[in-house]
Amino acid sequence: MDALRVLAVLLAALFVLGAPGLPTVLALRLRPLTALAVVTPVSAVLIAASAELGRLLSIPWTVLSPLVLGLVVGGLLWSAGIGRRRSRHTHRAGAAPEPVAHDAAEHRVAAEDAGVAADGADAATPDAAHDTEGAASSTCTATSTCTATAAATTTATATTTTGVPGTALGRGLATRRGRAATILLGLAIGGGYILLRALDMMGGLFRVNQSYDNVFHLNAVRHILRLGDGSAWTVGGMTTLPGEETFYPALWHQTVSLVVQLSGQDIVLASNLVMLLLGTTVWPLALMALVRTGTSAGPAGWLAAGALAGVASAFPLSMMSWGVLLPYLYSLSMMPLVLMLIVHLVRLAPDGDQRLTGGQLGVLVPAVFGAVALAHPQGVFVALVMGVPMMVWAVLATATDLVRRRPRAGIRLAVLVPLTALVIVVGHDIWYRFRPVEASAAVWGPTATTEEAIWQTLTLAPNATPIWLPLGVLVALCALAVLIGSRSRWLVIAFLAAGALSVATRSLPVDDLRYELTGNWYSDNNRITVMLATAAVPLLAVGLDVLLRWAARLLPVLRGTAGAVLAVALCLAIIAVGYFSPSTDMSKTYLEREWRSDNLLSDDERALLLMLPEVVPEDAVIATNAWNGSSLAYAISDREVLNTFMSFQAEDEVHLLNGHLDDAQTDPEVCDAAEELGVDYALDFGPKELHDRSATYTGLNEISETGAAEVVLQVGDAKLLRMLPCRGTDGSMNG
């Protein structure tokens, strides 16, 4: 039975994360891996847009809204012909040929003896590729001539690279099936590793995360379902007075609510499975798409990008526990795609059939950037931290090309300079406009000295965990390989930028400088240090690809099956190095505590909540305390509660009942307030509360002892009580 419930939610989650964006992705005619990677952010932005349109047009919230909007958008894009239409192999007579040397990786995989990597793919600059293309096309007078020239150029490249015919393995990896198998293997290794660690951390798919934010996230999903309105303003209004609704980035809650609707299962299971899909599938696919389209790495690089997705213990696992920051997890799981789009925008990506066209970028940039921002606004700050240095690097690299008189360098520089300047100006405004207003909100302090912070960053250690030199050596070695043997040096720039902020948040004292640099994340070390993974995993993947190419040159045996086996073995070895680090062991203890404790909700309390629908009428209101988990009756039991979250705005009557509901028999004003708000039941989960608090809502602590209510259901120490009739201020009996 449980297996069928899990399967129903899993299928529903895959549908919600992919189906709305599928028409758009098909209309753009993207390459398969890129299409798989971007379908989730495209679906996400359509979900968010349809939620606001539904509120505006009074359309009930169902999965049909994003599906219909997706069909409309996809149809418009298809009719506009924005997607890729060109052929890789055919040309009109007299027309300029397709690039023959733009993507060295693609051609060299076919001719490479080693099936493990594309030899020297990054050694040729995009400009050099343009030069080669120009030289070849100058002799073309007809289609046959162009085709022959292209073939000759490819053969020459392969001969120069390897000097021997390709092996069966190399030819196999050059096929569509071979590339797909490589990508699927990387996804299976990386996603499987993250899944196993996550399930071990959680202790089961049906468990409730025992953290502060989870009360809001679970209840917000129920709020959407109850009101039939998925708007971000609806979610923001859950904890405010009527008429004072605020915007709350609700993409996570909108997505999970659709999964619950479609599957018919409970919110907790749906939330957990969406979380796992983001970490085990969306995140590795985004990493592989970044390496596949943004660098000239060969199959070993694509494989490693997926396989090493979980090598940094800080992400995605910590965001599945800390907080629990599920919207931030949603945002960061798509962050590699932001880097991918930036690389294409500033022409740092290699030429070839993987390069995104202007039309594709015109659709994907607002879609992906919008999804990241709507999932969690702090994702915008992460994008600025890594993206702006990458753009500056692109300006400097293009200026160098101009000095060297590379073709079209001047045109590219004329576009890049104002674009980069615009991003810096707008980013500066965003940085200050949308951070916490007061520095007092940035409550997290340093956890290490500067030297310790540097080493923790280099070794990808989560916040406040030990250094692990073996992993640091691997990171440094791969960074050096990228610098020496690759044109994708922007990976090092992105890593240095994320690393600098990681060092700052771990070590800077609480002062103005710390707030300037880290205040946008409330100076929360956990939120800031996790961004390292976005830059570190691609850096390791491309570095490993370069190292394997060098090894294949020295040892010809690695140009066959042995090289492919070595690539997989090295990925597994790096994963093992990360897994057996002391930082992983320490963080594991902490992460498990957030799932396996009873700090928020005990097993008895959860069992009682599951029984409530059999006892409490649908229109009843239950007095609850969010601090002790009883307010999760809203999400789990689908019953109205007096308090949905720890922090909230409410009428005076609500605060009166929170403090004095147990006096309903003796205080007529309390009796009137209970009658006015329709409070018929109360939950008594004892004085123990989250964060070592105790008995915050005194009106619920002795309610069964004062005669205000009677116990109607009890599991262990957890009690459901029914309010007894009481006398109001007008002398009449209420209840």
UniProtKB/TrEMBL annotation:
The chain crosses the membrane at residues 6-26, 33-51, 63-82, 180-199, 267-290, 302-322, 328-346, 358-375, 381-399, 411-431, 467-484, 491-508, 528-548, 560-580. It holds the Pfam family DUF6541. Residues 120-139 are annotated as: Disordered. Keywords: Membrane, Transmembrane, Transmembrane helix. InterPro entries: DUF6541. The keyword Lyase does not apply. This is Glycosyltransferase RgtA/B/C/D-like domain-containing protein. It comes from Brachybacterium paraconglomeratum.
